[in-house]
Amino acid sequence: MSFDQWLAFCAFAAISSITPGPNNMMILASGLNHGLVRSLPHLAGIVLGFAFMVLGVGLGLHAVFTTVPVLQTVLKYAGAAYLLWLAWRLARAQPMATDSGGASTSRPMTFLGAAAFQWINPKGWVMAVSAVTTYLPAAFGLADAAALAVVFGLVGGPCVAAWAVFGVGMRRVLQNPRSVRVFNLVAAGLLVLSLYPILFSQ
Description:
The chain is mainly alpha-helical. It has helices at residues 3-18, 22-67, 69-92, 111-117, 122-135, 142-173, 177-193, 195-200. Helix 2 crosses helix 4, helix 2 (22-67) crosses helix 5 and helix 2 (22-67) runs antiparallel to helix 6 (142-173).
């Protein structure tokens, strides 16, 4: 890839990473409900899990969907079901419940949970396949795919982190538990709305 192609890819990685989607809605809610430090494993799981997905797609996973199209349909509906479950959990979350020491009693998503979620995140698959098919040259090797994955992680990581920081900022404003409850319900609703393009796109 030429320098201009890398610049174009970095712009794609930044725009696709910072636009709203399941990952960003969940890390925003995590920043609000758990704070930045406790959300770091969730954030790391998103960034590293997605970078590993890009590498896997670059090594040929996208060809599997071309060969067996039904797998894409299964993935779409499995991801939709999981997103509905996450939205239900978020809607029922107790806003910033704390124990006697002031620590939150609810638990944020773990590193492994966030990394595993990338594999059933429909937006993640679209981003990964688009990156590989658009920006890698026709005759690319392992090093090219690995470089694409690393750069996507380096560019996309701060974009996703910005949502967590925004959530922390909202936490300072939304001191009233009822306000946090309303936020959780709105975030859950946005997760459900994100299913529309997933389920009804051609």
